[in-house]
Write a structure and sequence with these properties.
This protein has 448 residues and is of the alpha/beta class. It is 46% helix and 14% strand.
Length: 448
């Protein structure tokens, strides 16, 4: 029989809660003083303690701390008539399972007790995730699916040469991680790995950031500065969002790739470079070339080897391994001890569509770990996190018509597959001609 210890100086609360939980089949202990409550706790080892913050003889927070130091597992639910920010934060910091304000709602108390006992039960099950004693490798790609296996083979081939690489995939799929693994497994792994986001720098500074500049080259150039190419040395320059590079810079960067030499802004002597270029984009560069927004000759120079990174929804079989990896990583970085998942959590994670891909999965797990009140992640917590980030939460009811939903589903699938119509038709389960008809019917166009 599960036991509950109630510590409160209000006899009416003690009597009502004792009667309520006794009728529910619990073994109930009570104490109207903190010291007496601590003694009864040590004598009877209850599974749950309902503890008032303000007691006549001891401070409830201090008592919570003593209870948490005990060897046997116990969940403490704090109750108080005073809403004090500092006290609430301190109680949760010390490991309180829940914090409930008076006047007490017995249904809310009962639910908290049931959740606490259920969490304790799962805590005692064999762990899904092993505890690690050293930092996890930040540059490891998780995946056993066929799509990822082909990427691993390509990385192996690239490790023996300096061929330029173009990585194409949706946001959050892990393009930079793949670039880092290529570099780490190359013959020049000890050389620098330099990153540059082409979409994060204003157009007027792009040339200076990439190629560097000489002193006095422009207003404000008080001294010479090396660009990203020079900083990469004989290593790797990773250019993220290469599809956002302006046409003028595309021409200048193409010249660098053709000659392996470049001029600083304001410079007169060409500088040579042997760095490898790994470019990444979440856009379909073939379409960008067709639209005249990306130079065809630069596209071919970059795609000596091309890697297509699959969406997470296209490799669902990898999600369990990703979850285990991320939980180990999160536990190490946050100092937490979340080693298990409630039954049903993994199925929920595997079946979710993950529009933000691997990055979204990791972020959801971080939030779930932070919000967890035990050593286990519950289904309810995952459902709350996923529903709060659902894109449908703000859609008006008028947008729930079937034609609208079909149009949006097709549009989002096209975007997530970088407007690859053949792959989109496969995912949607329709023929390419049918997809083309629906695109015309709904006037679906790529985002500008």
């Amino acid at each position: 029989m599960d036991s509950i210890l109630i510590i409160d100086d209000k006899h009416a609360i003690l009597e009502s809660l004792e009667m309520f939980f006794t009728e529910k089949g619990y073994h109930v202990l009570t104490a109207d003083r903190g010291r007496d409550g601590l003694r009864r706790f040590r004598e009877h080892d209850p599974q749950v303690v309902i503890l008032d913050i303000r007691l006549p003889d001891v401070d409830g927070i201090a008592l919570l701390e003593q209870i948490q130091e005990a060897e046997h597992p116990c969940k403490v639910i704090m109750i108080t008539a005073f809403q004090d920010m500092e006290t609430t934060i301190q109680a949760m910091k010390l490991g309180a399972y829940d914090y409930i304000h008076k006047p007490l709602d017995v249904d809310k108390i009962e639910k908290a007790v049931e959740r606490a006992l259920y969490t304790m039960k799962i805590d005692q099950e064999p762990p899904l995730v092993a505890e690690i004693t050293q930092p996890p490798n930040p540059e490891v790609i998780i995946g056993k699916s066929d799509r990822m296996g082909k990427i691993f083979q390509t990385i192996g081939m690239l490790s023996q040469n300096r061929a330029h690489v173009l990585i194409q995939g949706a946001t959050g799929t892990g393009k930079e991680l793949i670039a880092r693994v290529i570099h780490r497994n190359s013959l020049y792994a000890r050389e620098p790995f330099v990153t540059f986001d082409c979409s994060a720098v204003v157009e007027t500074l792009l040339e200076s950031e990439l190629f560097g500049h000489e002193k006095g080259a422009f207003t404000g150039a008080a001294q010479s500065k090396e660009g990203k190419i020079a900083l990469a040395g004989n290593g790797t320059l990773f250019l993220d969002e290469i599809g956002e590079l302006p046409r003028v810079m595309q021409r200048k960067f193409l010249g660098f790739l053709q000659r392996n030499a470049y001029d600083r802004v304001g410079g007169t002597h060409p500088l040579r470079s042997r760095c490898r270029i790994i470019a990444a984009t979440n856009r379909n560069l073939t379409d960008r070339v067709r639209e005249g927004k990306f130079r065809q000759d630069l596209f071919y120079r970059l795609k000596v080897v091309m890697i297509h990174v699959p969406l997470l929804v296209e490799r669902r079989s990898d999600i369990p391994d990703l979850v285990r990896h991320f939980l180990q990583k999160i536990n190490w970085e946050l100092g937490t001890e979340i080693f298990n998942l409630e039954k049903g959590v993994m199925d929920l994670l595997v079946s979710h569509d993950w529009p933000g891909n691997v990055r979204e999965l990791e972020n959801v797990l971080v939030e779930a770990v932070v919000r967890s009140r035990g050593n286990v992640i519950l289904v309810e917590e995952i459902e709350n996190i996923l529903s709060s980030s659902s894109p449908f939460a703000t859609i008006p009811l008028t947008h729930y018509s079937l034609p609208y939903m079909e149009k949006e589903h097709i549009r989002k699938t096209l975007e997530r597959l970088n407007w690859n119509r053949t792959e989109t038709a496969k995912v949607l389960g329709i023929s390419p001609p049918t997809l083309r008809k629906k695109i015309r019917k709904y006037a679906i166009e790529p985002a500008a």
